[in-house]
Specification:
The protein has three domains: 73 residues, Thrombin, subunit H (Beta Barrel), CATH 2.40.10; 286 residues, Rossmann fold, CATH 3.40.50.12240; 71 residues. It is built from eleven helices and 22 strands.
């Protein structure tokens, strides 16, 4: 450890958020740097690369107007850390972890590196237990499990923010006596927290989420990065959010649901910084290390064997050009355990939430449903709903060719089931549904068509 900070006035060039400093005697990757501007402001920065005595520094703010000759940098010999305390709960911060709600900063109980601590794979516990989102098509057919990473794949113009708002307001960890029907009406709010990170918001989107957060009042920690704020904050905000989640989960024993929207804005920020660093681009201009960068975020979700608490992640990805093979959703799909896919066709029909059931999948669903978790008949009901809805969807192509009059009575029944399934099970504008209400709705739908065998 160095005995004193080193101050340098040897900046050779500025490229976007990047500073090149020459003749540096001692520095380390990830070290926090203080940039002192000509107008006596102090900007936070971080060491990205070291080549001999030349150091590449990334500034966590706009660098417009900086004067190379009159700007200096100070190396602090410390890494970027997040201030942590239970007093964070119910607060809103910006992408640099500064209060955005008008209240003063809390007193930290602990400081933790925002890169987190790698979770030993042998210490990982399998994701288990059911998290109720209040959305039937997720809870019933693509169940979210404690410790899972389950992304939402959306498209431009689809109501992904409304879906996020529904989960924000209604998500809870079911408590009480396992398997007892009457116990599913209450959860332990004090042990369940939602950490929300919103990246690159427009003012319209911010006003929408602000109303949602104001209605919640407590049980959350929010990080909000606006589209006109420094691009580096877009890269910092999810790391601060995950540091908060790990602290609440593994230090305080809470179950934490992390919702990040929108990861496309995060990846675009990553590409912008990579371009400024003049790195060789990969697919669609994104950096070749985007996979490992996304993994460094997603893999922070999970459970640790022998410890209370968990981190569950629900990232939202807007697929550019509605292309699920685009690098962002493609790489996200490799790392995570399933996907919730929003459908433009269902949205055009006026169905909310417009979740396309057939390509959606929760790979860990089996770990969180059935007796002792939701209800004993959960798997049976979900299998039948999938089976008959898939048949009805397939028959719609035949109907477009021969018309409904040219189809058998059994085929017409399947078409009617698919239509009613979308209108009564997927459609959910009246508010939250408990898992019991969800399963009862599915059972009554099957019973109506005499398909509940």
């Amino acid at each position: 450890m160095r005995l004193f900070d080193h101050k340098y006035g040897t900046i050779t060039s500025i490229a976007g958020p990047l500073l090149f400093v020459h003749d540096v005697m001692s520095a380390r990757i990830g070290e926090v740097v203080k940039v002192q501007t000509p107008d006596n402001r102090q900007l936070d920065a971080e060491v990205l690369e070291i080549h001999g005595d030349t150091v590449l520094i990334e500034v966590f703010a706009e660098t417009h107007g900086l004067d190379i000759k009159r700007t200096s940098v100070v190396f602090t010999d410390s890494v970027k850390r997040a201030p942590l305390s239970r007093d964070m709960i119910g607060r809103v911060f910006n992408g640099s972890f500064q209060p955005k709600d008008g209240f003063p900063m809390f007193l930290p109980e602990k400081w933790s590196p925002i890169a987190g601590f790698p979770m030993n794979p042998s210490a990982r516990a399998r994701p288990v237990d059911f998290i109720e989102t209040g959305v039937s098509v997720i809870d019933g057919l693509n169940t979210l499990v404690k410790g899972q990473k389950l992304p939402v794949f959306s498209c431009a113009g689809l109501p992904s923010k409304e879906v996020v708002a529904a989960v924000l307001k209604n998500a809870r960890l079911i408590g009480g006596k396992e398997g007892a029907r009457e116990e599913y009406t209450t959860g332990h709010a004090s042990d369940f927290i939602v950490v929300f990170a919103a990246l690159g918001l427009t003012f319209y989107e911010y006003s929408f989420y602000k109303r949602v957060i104001d209605d919640m009042q407590s049980g959350f920690v929010a990080f909000v990065n606006m589209a006109d704020e420094p691009v580096m904050e877009r890269l910092l905000a999810p790391r601060f959010a995950l540091s908060v989640a790990e602290y609440l989960a593994f230090d305080k024993g809470m179950d934490v649901l992390v919702i990040i929207t929108d990861m496309t804005n995060y990846c675009d920020a990553l590409r912008e910084v990579s371009t400024a660093r003049e790195e060789l681009p990969g697919r669609r201009g994104y950096p070749g290390y985007m996979y490992s960068d996304l993994a460094s975020l997603y893999e922070r979700a999970g459970r640790i064997r022998g410890q209370q608490g968990s981190v569950t992640m629900l990232p939202v990805v807007t697929m550019p050009e509605d292309d699920i093979t685009h690098p962002i959703p493609d790489l996200t799909g490799y790392i995570t355990e399933g996907q919730i896919v929003l459908s433009r066709e269902l949205h055009q029909k006026g169905i909310f939430p417009p979740v396309d059931v057939l390509p959606s999948l929760s790979r860990l669903m089996q770990r969180g449903i059935g007796k002792g978790h939701t209800r004993e008949d959960h798997r049976h009901i979900s299998n039948l709903l999938y089976k008959y809805y898939a048949k009805g969807r397939d028959l719609r192509r035949l109907e477009a060719i021969v018309g409904r009059d040219g189809m058998t009575e059994n085929d017409k029944e399947m078409l009617n089931f698919a239509d009613l399934f979308e209108r009564e099970f997927i459609q959910q504008r009246a508010g939250r549904r408990s898992i019991i209400e969800t399963l009862d709705t599915g059972f009554e739908l099957l019973k109506q068509f005499k398909l509940e065998k």
